[in-house]
Amino acid sequence: MPRSAHDCILLDPAAAAALADTPLGLLQPVVRDAVPTADFVALDDFDQTLRRSGRVLLEAGGMILLLQPDGAMLRQPGPRQGPSVSGLPEGPVKAALADLSPLRRLLVVGAGGLGRVTVAFVDDEGKSQVRLDLLSLQVAAGTALTIARPQALRGYPQAGADLRARIADCGGVPMATDNLCERLFPVAAVYDAKPVIALQADQTALDAATAIIAAYIPVARANEAGIIADHDTEFLHDYRIALRKIRSVLGLFRGVLDDGQTAELKARFSALMAPTGRLRDLDVALLEGTTYHDLLPKSVHAGLDAKFALLAEERRTARARLVQHLRRDGHAQEMAALEDLFATRTALRPGPVAALPARAFASRLIWKRYRRICRIARIIGPDTDDAEVHGLRIECKKLRYLMEFFAPLFPRDEFRALLKPLKALQDNLGLVNDCAVQQANLQLFLHGTGKRGRKVSLEVAQGVGALTAVLHRRQTEERTRTGASLAQFTSPQTARIFRGLFHAPKDRT
Amino acid sequence: MKIIACYSNKGGVGKTATAVNLAHALAASGRRVLLCDLDPQGASSFYFRVKPSRKLSEARFFDGDEKMVESIRASDYENLDILPANMAFRNFDVFLSQMKQPRSRLKKALAAVRADYEVILLDCPPSLSTLSEAVFRAADAILVPVIPTTLSQRTFEQLLAFFAENDLPTDRLHAMFSMVQTTKRLHADTMAELQGACPDRFLTARIPFATDVERMGIDRAPVTATLPNSAAARAYRAVCAEVVVRAGLDRDTGTA
Ligand SMILES: Nc1ncnc2c1ncn2[C@@H]1O[C@H](COP(=O)(O)OP(=O)(O)OP(=O)(O)O)[C@@H](O)[C@H]1O
Ligand SMILES: [Mg+2]
Q: Which CATH number fits domain A9-184: 2.40.320, 1.10.150, 2.60.40, 2.70.98?
């Protein structure tokens, strides 16, 4: 019979051992199934998606186990066939991990030994009336605990109830896995790609700018090790986003610092980003690879494979170069210097609007940016130049950053109501842009291969041609959708909320 | 959901041994099985170490058919539950006849059973009296162990005749040679003769006479579980494979 699994209980190992050894009333304990201790590793992605959601993922002796916050335990056979969640064989654990990003590598976050034993409590006929599964975890760092799962058997409710009562007497506590994860693998801080910055309405614009930049420098730095190790492509992506956000704070908060320092800092953060561009472009191109395969007929697959082999080769070179750069003392020193600048603030030179209240300042910036988007919306149509659309995309991104930075200063629900259509619009614009960039990349690629003195085979040329056609069609479709999203975002209703939040009479200057 | 009965109008032919091992083999193949011990002697319950609790043998538990469902016990094997002997058999014929009717009076009680099991296996006592008719009508397959002797041969022929006379579905009768001793001339001759007489009614698989089966009384567990590589266990698994096809379990979508 399928048994309810939602009943894991945490026990002290000594208490668990005693439990497994003591008769339950007239029922005698008999060991039915004992799996000797095997090494396990605990897995999670860099965003700690599992820890945050209270799940624990273990791999031991060819099995994959998932402990869920409700106390359920799922298991399926391994081994993993790839570094991310998509590398798991089909099974209940994989199904329960559908929310994990396939781009993220599952990293080892802990290790230890894991043993399992099943004890049956049998009556005088030798018949089991209830079973107890004990999963003991011994973490390398020293913590040990046992997860007990009583397995009631149909028709023997009394024995099931007795065992539960006994477990409670032994000091068992229902497993809340967030608890479990912290107990087994405690960490000082969890990486957060979007730290919430506690801003107060009465702080100054300079306070706000400093706080945001000071929060994002560590986010960037936290990704450096992952880029060097090449765990997955998201490290570089997050690294670049953190730096880009800092740069946009400098650009958007004009007048908070004096012009000279603003220009100098923008140049320094741009210099940090510069060596990452090529690698990111290659990452994106390679990630698209699988989609291309699905999009195109088999006849051109060989051509595509050749293309991606070349890209992969180029990526190796670009990565080696970036790793070298990140390992240089100069890089670490520059990062430390910037970190120090925004932590101590003594060397910052306030500009003319530095002392404005943060909230009024934020309202002014957001309102201005929104109005600019509305203006562009009026002139944009299906035939508008790609460059204009690109401009709109940049404006939206800036508005998004502003709104996210300042979110803590505004009412949550109204803010969300505005962010939602903005996100939808950004998604459309992003796809339009991706298609355009990829078409350009394909052309570059054709030229590039020629220039390197390699022969562009007919097959490659055909593959690229077919793909360009597909991308162009997609781009056109997405442009149509963008129109609808833009209309929604600049509609009188949305504009009214923007005005109410960011251009109320008290804010007008 | 399919109902399979292990039945013979003759005693001691291996009905219980077959029911117990077939139940285990079916469960081990991933099907959810309920084995009903219809013999008041409780032999198959005994093999699974399930004892009828005193509480359940009280008269009041015999009254409601729902109580019967409550007296089902998990066996020590995955996917296999037991309805112990002595449980509500006063009404078991009603239970059976209603099992397959969607507008059954016992709808609620049966719906639970239907949802929980893909196979209901009946270990029948040698004389069925009031029950027999219900079993014959409800079962998708009636598995009849036949010891290849003259006497058993006659009993089986009587059963065939009874089915014909009473307008019962003869094609649901499936005979199976039991306790076969290949060294015995009589066994070989009887099997050849019977198989010739009714070619479609006999399973290809045969259960040999084996002390491993007799040992089940000591081990109190199916031989397919304790000695899975023995000749007897292999034979029971072969029977299982044939029964799956003959009872239509391979085509079954799950609901009745
Ligand atoms: N294949 C076999 N080889 C040897 N002994 C067997 C075999 N099958 C059954 N037996 C033994 O024969 C006896 C009768 O078997 P079983 O109880 O299975 O028959 P039955 O038809 O259910 O009997 P009853 O009519 O009393 O219910 C038991 O002692 C059993 O151990
Ligand atoms: Mg019997």
A: 2.40.320
